[in-house]
Design a protein that fits this description.
Mean pLDDT: 89
Shape: globular
Number of strands: 28
Number of helices: 4
Strand content: 35-45%
Helix content: under 10%
Largest sheet: 5 strands, antiparallel
C-alpha cells in the first residue's frame, strides 16, 4: 500500500506474494459478491506477451483506490461550488499539495445527486488551503454547478491518483521494455486517451523516464485516473504479471462519457462485468439501432478487438450480429465507447456496486 501522496512508490509492480491481513479482493470475481467490510487487498493484472518483433494488445485498468494521505481533511463537506472548483472552507489543506504533478489527486463526491462523480484535480492551477480546481479536460466536459451538489450538505473524498511512473515503473522494477531516445518502436507502448485522441508513451532508457512518442517530452507524471483504462502494446516476449494494491471502491460510480466521439471506460470494479451488466446501454442519450446507426462499444476479446451495438433489446456483435449480452469485461480491463454525432459535453454512466459491502 502507498503510505503517502508526496512520495508514491509504484503501485503496479512485478507480481509477488502479498502477505495481507485483510481480504484479497481478487476473490470478488463474481457479480453480487458479498463482503462485510470495505476490504483492502490486491488484484492481479496480466499484460500479454509480444514476440519481440510483433506487439500484443492488452486493455488495462486499475480497479482499486487509495485515500490520499494529505494535510487537512481528506474527507469532508463541500461548502461552495463553481463551474470548475470545489471548496471546503475548513479543509485545512496545505496550499499546492493536492496539485503536485508527481502525486496528483482526484476528488470524489460521496453523497447527494452527484455521488460517484470523480474528477481529476488540476496540477497547473494550484490548490489552496480550501479549494481545488478541476483539470482542464474534466472542466471542458462537466459544469459542476449543473450536478445538484448541495453546499454545506454533500460530502467528498480525496483519492490518490496514479501516474505512468507510479503504475508502470521501470524496466528494472516491472519488466517494461524500454527503448532509447527516438527508438520507441523497439519498446513497449502505452496509449492514453486525452481529449478524444490517443497519446503514445514509452520508457526512455536514455533519459531514464517515461516519454511521449514523437516529442520525447518527459511524461512520468501523466495522470492515470482510477476510472481510466489504458491500452498496453507489449513488444517484449514475456507476459508481465503485475499486481495492483488498494481498497475496494465503496461508492456507486457515475462515470464521465462524452456525448460524441471516443470514451475509454474502465471496468472500475474488482469484479467481472458483462456487456449487459455494464449498464452502458442505459446511459443517457445512448443510441440503439443497427450496426450502422447505433453507438458502439469495442472490447478486446482474446488478441483482437470486437465491436458491439445495442438494438434496444440485446447487445449484438457488428458483422455476425450474434447476441452478445454475456461478452465479458474482465477485472482489470475495460471498453472503448464510440458515440455518434458531434454533441459537446458529457453524460454520466451510473453503475451500482456489483457487490454488497
Amino acid at each position: 500500500m502507498k503510505t503517502s501522496v508526496s512520495q508514491r512508490a509504484p503501485r503496479l509492480v512485478a507480481l509477488f506474494a502479498l502477505a495481507l491481513a485483510t481480504l484479497s479482493v481478487s476473490n470478488l470475481s463474481a457479480q453480487n459478491a458479498t463482503v462485510t467490510t470495505v476490504p483492502v487487498g490486491a488484484v492481479a493484472v496480466t499484460i500479454a506477451a509480444g514476440t519481440g518483433t510483433a506487439r500484443a494488445l492488452s486493455t488495462v485498468s486499475f480497479p482499486l483506490v487509495d485515500q490520499a494521505v494529505i494535510a487537512g481533511q481528506a474527507t469532508g463537506v463541500i461548502t461552495a461550488v463553481t463551474a470548475n472548483t470545489l471548496t471546503n472552507s475548513t479543509a485545512g489543506w496545505t496550499a499546492g499539495q493536492l496539485s503536485t504533478a508527481a502525486a496528483p489527486c482526484v476528488i470524489q463526491i460521496t453523497s447527494g445527486s452527484a455521488s460517484g462523480r470523480t474528477f481529476l484535480v488540476s496540477t497547473t492551477t494550484a490548490s489552496t488551503a480550501t479549494t481545488v480546481t478541476l483539470d482542464t479536460e474534466d472542466a471542458a466536459l462537466v459544469d459542476l454547478t449543473t450536478l445538484g451538489i448541495a453546499s454545506g450538505v454533500d460530502t467528498y473524498r480525496v483519492l490518490a491518483c496514479d501516474t505512468l511512473s507510479s503504475l508502470f515503473g521501470t524496466p528494472g522494477t516491472t519488466g517494461v521494455l524500454g527503448a532509447a531516445t527516438g527508438q520507441s518502436a523497439t519498446g513497449d507502448i502505452v496509449l492514453v486517451l486525452n481529449s478524444g485522441a490517443y497519446r503514445s508513451y514509452y520508457y526512455n532508457t536514455t533519459a531514464s523516464q517515461w516519454a511521449r512518442v514523437g516529442p520525447n517530452t518527459a511524461s512520468n507524471n501523466v495522470a492515470i485516473r482510477p476510472d481510466a483504462m489504458v491500452i498496453y502494446n507489449r513488444l517484449g516476449n514475456s507476459a508481465l504479471g503485475l499486481t495492483i494494491t488498494g481498497e475496494v471502491p465503496s461508492v456507486a460510480r457515475k462515470a464521465i462519457v462524452k456525448k460524441s466521439g471516443l470514451t475509454v471506460l474502465a471496468n472500475g470494479w474488482p469484479a467481472g462485468l458483462t456487456l449487459a451488466t455494464s449498464g452502458i446501454q442505459n446511459s443517457s442519450g445512448w443510441t440503439t439501432g443497427t450496426s450502422t446507426t447505433a453507438d458502439t462499444v469495442q472490447v478486446l476479446v482474446g488478441s483482437a478487438y470486437q465491436k458491439f451495438y445495442h438494438n434496444g433489446t440485446n447487445w449484438k456483435r457488428v458483422g455476425p450480429n450474434t447476441t452478445s449480452d454475456t461478452v465479458a469485461i474482465p477485472v482489470g480491463s475495460g471498453v472503448i465507447i464510440s458515440k455518434l454525432g458531434s454533441a459537446t459535453g458529457s453524460v454520466a454512466l451510473s453503475q451500482a456496486l456489483p457487490y454488497t459491502l
